[in-house]
Automatic annotation (TrEMBL):
Any GO BP annotation: aldehyde metabolic process
The keyword Cell cycle appears for this protein: no
PANTHER family: ALDEHYDE DEHYDROGENASE, ALDEHYDE DEHYDROGENASE TYPE III, ISOFORM Q
PROSITE patterns documented for this protein: ALDEHYDE_DEHYDR_GLU
Protein name as it appears in the record: Aldehyde dehydrogenase
Gene name of the encoded protein: Aldh3a1
Domain Aldehyde dehydrogenase residue range list: 12-435
Keyword terms, alphabetized: NAD, Oxidoreductase
Source species of the chain: Symbiodinium natans
Length: 500
């Protein structure tokens, strides 16, 4: 449906809403740790009371049964983690010092914008939202318009459970997103593709707004000659066919040692047939591609792959139904679009290699991926691969599991994004780490070693070489560190006079 307002009118409207939220933030409401706990508890309550409704709408949007909603419900783990640790996370941290104490106080940034994708609409909205709440921020949430059932439900439930003065949901498509980005935010959290990510970055740059980018890319899998093939294939198949491959960290292509190529393909084909039937239609949980346009894109990738389709293929695609069967392609052309673009669907290219260096060179020619997976029983090969290949995250003899725990960060690098979240890392991402020096005024600590210079008089000549020797001298490192700390403390009045 076309917007009833122009982008300019929407920009002004959202600006007024944002101004009201800034007034609420300025009131200090969100600085209360108890308020944050209450909001997080309400998020958990929202899941407890509506999990079936959430799962059913996800199934309506993405196909499959209500089990498709399980990854969405899992976002509650992030909320629970924040609740359990918020007292510790929000505490001012004493770093060092006695006469003057060096401290770090995490403080909220303000009003943040969270733009969620269509593939995991609840999880990828609620997990960053939980981090934003824990850090004491207010948030405007923008769900994807490609979720016609889930987006309205998000817009309905969020204001029912969270403080409506502090959290708002804006539905819509490009005009609404454009209008939101025309305004100044204190932080923007975007999950999606790199093309739109560049648009978000350009808009944020106009206001010098910090941004977290969770993108994607071609996440490779390396299977060497020592890999245990039964475990390897089951784990890759699970992660590749889950959600029809529409996951940013799904295996995009597999590089397998030539001695294992035939076994790998045979096992993967068998797993696809056992799980989804000969044509992929016999498993209700498989789901569908988000829309006809994306199904047509996948059809073109398969048709132009330049390799041998050993299972599935474009003949079984039903574009109007959003159905693309699990497809395995043997030795695609390295110049084909399927090896240039992120697939984001249930299509798996398999490429043989003869030695590890050749495989690593193939991966290094691509942009830095969000995930990198290595299947090997050789610790030497694993270490060589992890050292040679950069990625946002990585898995050794596993796929996808690096994004689940709250105790380790999730984030990209280069074209796959930047910034990180989950657990304490998300709290830090949405916090300003404020440096504070608390200096004693007790008797004996009220002055400085050197008196302030009088007007027109310079410090004695011996001071400069003394300072240089203290800073860079031949003393032991531990002694130099001690002297440097003392020097910085004593010279602070002079820096203040100099305006630094």
């Amino acid at each position: 449906m076309a917007p009833t307002q122009s982008v300019e009118e929407l920009t002004e409207d959202y600006g007024k809403q944002l101004a009201a939220m800034r007034q609420t933030f300025a009131s200090g409401r969100s600085r209360s740790v108890e308020w944050r706990k209450q909001q997080l508890s309400q998020l958990l309550k929202m899941y407890e009371e509506n999990h079936e409704l959430i799962s059913n709408t996800i199934a309506a949007d993405m196909g499959g049964t209500k089990m498709r909603g399980m990854p969405e419900i899992a976002a509650a783990q992030g909320v629970d983690e924040a609740l359990a640790n918020i007292d510790c996370w929000t505490r001012e941290r004493w770093v060092e010092g006695w006469i003057h104490r060096l401290c770090v106080r995490p403080e909220p940034k303000g009003v943040v914008l969270i733009i969620a994708p269509w593939n995991v609409p609840w999880q990828l909205l609620v997990r960053p939202l939980a981090s934003a709440i824990a850090a004491g921020n207010l948030a405007v949430l923008k769900p994807s318009e490609l979720n016609p059932q889930s987006s309205p439900l998000i817009a309905k439930l969020i204001p029912q459970y969270l403080d409506p003065d502090c959290f708002r949901v804006i539905e819509g498509a490009v005009p609404e997103t454009t209008a939101l980005l025309n305004n100044r935010w204190d932080h923007i959290f975007y999950t999606g593709n790199a093309a739109v990510g560049r648009v978000v970055m350009a808009a944020a740059a106009k206001h010098l707004t910090p941004v977290t980018m969770e993108l994607g890319g071609k996440s490779p899998v390396l299977v060497d000659e020592t890999a245990k093939m039964d475990v390897t294939c089951r784990r890759i198949a699970f992660a590749k066919w889950m959600l029809c491959g529409q996951i940013c960290v799904a295996p995009d292509y597999v590089l397998v040692h030539r001695s294992k190529e035939a076994e790998f393909i045979e096992r993967m084909v068998k797993l696809a047939k056992d799980g989804y039937g000969e044509d992929g239609t016999q498993q209700a949980d498989f789901g569908r591609i988000v829309n006809e346009r994306h199904a047509e894109r996948l059809e073109k990738l398969i048709k132009t792959c330049g390799g041998e389709v050993v299972h599935g293929g474009f003949e079984g695609i039903q574009k109007s139904e959003g159905f693309v069967p699990p497809t395995i392609i043997k030795q695609p052309s390295m110049d084909a679009p399927i090896m240039k673009e992120e697939i984001f669907g249930p299509v798996l290219p398999v490429i043989p290699y003869d030695n590890l260096e050749d495989a690593l060179e193939i991966i290094k020619k691509q942009e830095i991926p969000l995930a990198f997976y290595v299947f090997s029983e050789s610790s030497r090969n694993v270490e060589k691969a992890l050292t040679a290949i950069q990625s946002g995250g990585a898995g050794v003899n596993t796929v996808f599991e690096q994004v689940v725990p709250e105790s380790i960060p999730f984030g990209g690098l280069g074209e796959s994004g930047f910034g990180m979240y989950h657990g304490k890392y998300g709290f830090d991402e949405f916090s300003h780490q404020r440096a504070i020096v608390r200096k004693s005024t007790l008797p004996g600590f009220q002055g400085t070693l050197f008196p302030l210079p009088k007007a027109g008089e310079a410090l004695p000549e011996f001071v400069y070489p003394l300072v240089v020797r203290l800073q860079l001298g031949i003393f032991p490192q531990s002694m130099k560190s001690c002297w440097r700390g003392l020097f910085h403390m004593l010279m602070s009045p002079f820096r203040t006079l100099a305006g630094r």
